[in-house]
Automatic annotation (TrEMBL):
Residues 492-517 have a biased composition (Basic and acidic residues). Pfam families: O-FucT. InterPro entries: FucosylTrfase_pln, GDP-Fuc_O-FucTrfase. GO terms for biological process: fucose metabolic process. Belongs to the glycosyltransferase GT106 family. Residues 492-572 are annotated as: Disordered. Keywords: Carbohydrate metabolism, Fucose metabolism, Glycosyltransferase, Membrane, Transferase, Transmembrane, Transmembrane helix. It comes from Cucumis melo. Residues 523-542, 560-572 have a biased composition (Acidic residues). One of its GO terms (molecular function) is glycosyltransferase activity. This is O-fucosyltransferase family protein. The gene is LOC103493804. The lineage of its organism: Eukaryota, Viridiplantae, Streptophyta, Embryophyta, Tracheophyta. The chain crosses the membrane at residues 16-39.
Length: 572
């Protein structure tokens, strides 16, 4: 009986608590439901965000506390400012004895005109290949016409960018070049315009172009970019090198201003890094990549993509990142450099256009490298006034500063990166860092789950073969302008073989005019591009240079003639 009374007593006390417990449970359920509603979707999660919190005053903390970037970067155990074995190789581009002089092979009444396409560096490849095309056709080359109608809207002509007299005289033994087409019977020539397929070989020029040239006597090849095969006979490849690395000199005004910028960087530090940063809104839109900006990013970049009918909406942006086809963010570039051993005190020169997200996007890079410079910060507005209205002249200034840097870094696979890679390789193999984006992708994604030591060790492992060392890439692999292997000669046997082993091409036959840089080529693409074999096939392709459109291949432009601006904005 007593037991029954105690049980009833506890029952009545517990009964009064039930409503209170129910109210608390309901409140908790409501709280978690609200929290779930307000939380970002998995696609917008923090591991994709461009801008995590930084503390520049001390070691940089990113994500969880155990991932801290030390001031001095990681210990690399190597010289950060030189390439191993570089002294054993030099540029060599002299013609062989069997390469006849221009006056012996040039036919009268054969004139070749070229209309280049794209930005400064894309046009540079076109000019280089135009000289070789004229040599194949035994024709006189008229000084190439620069692209003045594209996205860049630059009205400069050849002589306002390059030293035209030097160009003509330096190549006089190889190809006859004239300033303009001569009169014919007192009248102007009626030139025939045509376009050749991409990657057109010697035989292609002889079969497609020569018959028209023999009939018309003067022809203009339009949209002349990457219209010459990657593989040619050695003497023609060396002619390419003579054009690109010796004949094409900037005008005195551009060269002097560029050297002034270089001297100002040198006055700040004995060494400096130059970064070519492509992170413009258009670049990101066409890449099809996603950088964690949520609905705002999707809306803004999607609007840019819809301007061009040839671009499809992106269904799987993460796939592009996994395949290494997306430009690294400014933050990721900074983390890569610090992991490779470059400390917070290193001075960095950034060559870039409009950066998507502006200062907010650049903040992590500036926290990692506070000594952050650009031509606008080290030159006065008055000094840049005569260049600032011309995109190609401004690009030329960046080209000079990047070319003369101790280390050149890029976050993309564009024309400037490729051209400088080949140039720096030819002139002494100065370190040129190309991100191994395919391997780095997951490392950046999971970095907050590891220590800085583990992260930096993995970066150094993944970047082997992407640092600008001699023989990182097999001869003949990749685009010729980024890997001019026929023009790189072994002058002595290295004591330590590189991973791929050196290849000997013969005795060096030219001494570089100055100690200029050399670089690696892009190894993120594991295959050669497939080019259309005919103009008909080419017209059916919108973006055919290196497979599906993505940020890595944007430098090669779109070729759809109905949308001329698209290819230009992506090029340099």
């Amino acid at each position: 009986m007593a037991f029954q009374r105690r049980r009833n007593h506890y029952y009545h006390r517990f009964r009064f608590l039930i409503p209170f417990i129910s109210a608390i449970s309901a409140g908790l359920l409501l709280f978690f439901a609200l929290l779930s509603f307000l939380a970002p979707s998995p696609n917008d999660s923090d591991h994709h965000r461009l801008i995590p919190p930084f503390n520049a005053a001390s070691d940089v903390a990113i994500g969880v506390s155990h991932f801290r970037v030390p001031r001095n970067g990681a210990r690399s155990g190597r010289d950060l400012w030189t390439s191993r074995n570089a002294k054993f190789y030099s540029g060599c581009c002299n013609a062989s004895n069997k390469f006849q002089k221009a006056n012996a092979i040039t036919h009268p009444n054969r004139y070749l005109l070229i209309a280049t396409s794209g930005g400064l560096n894309q046009q540079r490849t076109g000019i280089t290949d135009a000289v070789v095309a004229a040599r194949i056709l035994n024709a006189t080359l008229v000084v190439p016409k620069l692209d003045q109608k594209s996205f860049w809207r630059d009205s400069s002509n050849f002589s306002e960018i390059f030293d035209v007299d030097w160009f003509i005289s330096f190549l006089s033994k190889d190809v006859k070049i004239i300033h303009q087409l001569p009169k014919r019977g007192g009248k102007t020539w009626n030139t025939h315009s045509m376009r050749v397929p991409r990657k057109c070989s010697e035989r292609c020029y002889q079969n497609r172009v020569l018959p028209v040239l023999l009939k018309r006597h003067a022809i203009q090849l339009s949209k002349f970019d990457y219209r010459l095969a990657n593989k040619l006979e050695t003497d023609l490849q060396k002619l390419r090198c003579r054009v690109n690395y010796h004949a094409l000199k900037f005008t005195d005004s551009i060269q002097k201003m560029g050297e002034k910028l270089v001297n100002r960087m040198r006055a700040r530090s004995n060494h400096y890094i130059a970064l070519h940063l492509r992170f413009e809104p258009d670049m990101l839109a066409f890449s099809g990549c996603y950088y964690g900006g949520g609905e705002k990013e999707r809306r803004e970049l999607g609007a840019i993509r819809r301007r061009w009918k040839t671009l499809h909406q992106v269904s799987n942006p993460d796939k592009e990142r996994r395949h290494g086809k997306c430009p690294l963010t400014p933050e990721e570039v900074g983390l890569m450099l610090r992991a490779l051993g470059y400390g917070q005190d290193v001075h960095i020169y950034v060559a870039s256009g409009e950066v998507y997200g502006g200062e907010e996007t650049l903040a992590p890079l500036k926290a990692l490298f506070p000594n952050f410079h650009s031509k606008e910060t080290i030159a006065s507005k008055a000094e840049l006034d005569k260049f600032s209205s011309y995109s190609s002249r401004m690009a030329a200034l960046d080209f000079i500063v990047c070319d003369e840097s101790d280390v050149f870094v890029t976050n993309n696979n564009g024309n400037m990166a490729r051209i400088l890679a080949g140039r720096r390789r030819y002139f002494g193999h100065k370190p040129t860092i190309r991100p191994n984006a395919k391997k780095l992708y997951r490392l950046f994604l999971n970095r907050t789950n590891m220590t800085w030591g583990a992260f930096s060790s993995r970066v150094r492992t993944y970047q082997r073969g992407f640092m600008g060392e001699p023989n990182e890439v097999r001869p003949g692999r990749g685009e010729f302008h980024e890997n001019p292997s026929p023009c790189i000669c072994e002058v002595a046997k290295p004591h330590v073989k590189s991973d791929s082993g050196p290849r000997k091409y013969g005795k060096s036959d030219i001494t570089p005019r100055r100690d200029e840089p050399a670089t690696v080529d892009d190894q993120n693409s594991d295959y050669e591009p497939e080019w259309p074999d005919s103009e008909e096939e080419e017209d059916q392709v919108d973006f055919q240079d290196k497979g599906p459109l993505n940020a890595t291949n944007l430098e090669y432009d779109a070729i759809n003639s109905e949308e001329p601006e698209l290819e230009e904005m992506l090029s340099d």
